[in-house]
């Protein structure tokens, strides 16, 4: 169902404080908090005695105390105290999860902790560059399987109908798509030449007249997306073009974390190459992007229902090529991981 040997976003950094809270990732309940050194700790959210969630207990120094009988666990998940005296049972432990804080996000590794490598977390160029501005919004709860949002982020065509007041332009309906497979995922992309900028971008580009526009939709395994929008004056873009000094670039990063089979937590932010310190521009972009993503949510929540309750087969179109390739490869990766796990457990 899920690829476990991968990094997923568990929370925004500012969501995790020195209080116990439950976070769901891949259908698993996790207790998270910050210790006295401000480090993020993540462990199985179930006391091994009677399975009360540890998030219903309390922090004792840097340990977690169960709220039922006081069993106390250190940050590695080992029980260090149990009531009644005598030896602490060897099974009195909970699973700890590797976590890492980067890009203002808390990343968690849900699979084999022995192979967790923080170098495998997605690289985000320009994140700390003073020349690039950033805007973000709160995480969104989607009532759909995470792969439906992955599909959406490999689908430049849908903007012509779902985002008519923001990202759509006439060329987004029928300009041919190109699909490229990489080691990390799938890219669906196209240049659309000499047309009016879409409504959202018209408010931010720093040139007049028509544009050449790149739609670069990329999803990397298991569920991390980069949507790159490039707007440059007409005649300066394209595969062989030389971008103009006023070219506008927006890199939208999107992280889909499955919480259950049919629910997803969606994290996002945008980096832009103009006016990095313009707080008003950042606020406007955050609001407008959030509004567009709400349009996606309204559609995908209904698609989830439609796919669950369908009474006839659904069909695929030519524009679905990137999505289908992504799903096939991810399914193969999940199957291979399951086979390795089965061999190791024998």
TrEMBL record:
Residues 7-108 form the Rieske domain. One of its GO terms (biological process) is methylation. Keywords: 2Fe-2S, Iron, Iron-sulfur, Metal-binding, Methyltransferase, Monooxygenase, Oxidoreductase, Transferase. It comes from the Bacteria. One of its GO terms (molecular function) is monooxygenase activity. It comes from Pontivivens marinum. InterPro entries: Cholesterol_7-desaturase (IPR050584), Rieske_2Fe-2S (IPR017941), Rieske_2Fe-2S_sf (IPR036922), VanA_C_cat (IPR044043). This is Vanillate O-demethylase monooxygenase subunit.
């Amino acid at each position: 169902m899920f690829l476990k040997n991968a990094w997923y976003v568990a929370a925004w950094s500012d969501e995790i404080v020195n209080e116990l809270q439950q976070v769901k990732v891949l259908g698993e309940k996790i207790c998270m908090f910050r210790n006295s050194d401000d480090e993020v700790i993540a462990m199985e959210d179930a006391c091994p005695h009677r399975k009360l969630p540890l998030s219903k207990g309390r922090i004792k120094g840097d340990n977690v105390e169960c709220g039922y009988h006081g069993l106390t666990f250190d940050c590695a998940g080992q029980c260090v105290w149990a009531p009644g005296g005598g030896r602490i049972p060897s099974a009195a432990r909970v699973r700890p999860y590797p976590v890492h804080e980067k890009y203002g996000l808390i990343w968690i590794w849900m699979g084999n902790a022995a192979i967790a490598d923080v170098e495998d977390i997605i690289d985000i160029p320009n994140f700390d560059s003073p020349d690039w501005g950033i805007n973000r919004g709160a995480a969104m709860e989607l009532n759909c399987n995470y792969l439906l949002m992955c599909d959406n982020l490999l689908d430049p065509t849908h903007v012509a109908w779902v985002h008519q007041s923001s990202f759509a332009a006439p060329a987004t309906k029928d300009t041919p798509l190109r699909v490229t497979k990489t080691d990390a995922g799938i890219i669906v992309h196209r240049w659309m030449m000499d047309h009016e900028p879409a409504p959202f971008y018209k408010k931010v580009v720093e040139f007049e007249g028509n544009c050449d526009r790149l739609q670069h939709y990329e999803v990397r395994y298991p569920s991390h997306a980069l949507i790159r929008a490039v707007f440059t004056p007409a005649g300066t873009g394209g595969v062989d073009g030389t971008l103009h000094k006023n070219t506008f670039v927006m890199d939208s990063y999107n992280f889909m974390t499955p919480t259950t089979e049919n629910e997803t937590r969606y994290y996002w932010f945008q980096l832009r190459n103009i006016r990095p310190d313009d707080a008003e521009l950042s606020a406007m972009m955050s609001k407008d992007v959030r509004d567009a993503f709400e349009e996606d949510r309204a559609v995908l929540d209904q698609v989830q229902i439609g796919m669950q309750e369908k009474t006839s087969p659904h069909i695929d179109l030519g524009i679905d090529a990137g999505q289908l390739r992504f799903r096939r490869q991810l399914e193969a990766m999940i199957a291979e991981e399951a086979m390795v796990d089965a061999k190791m457990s024998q």
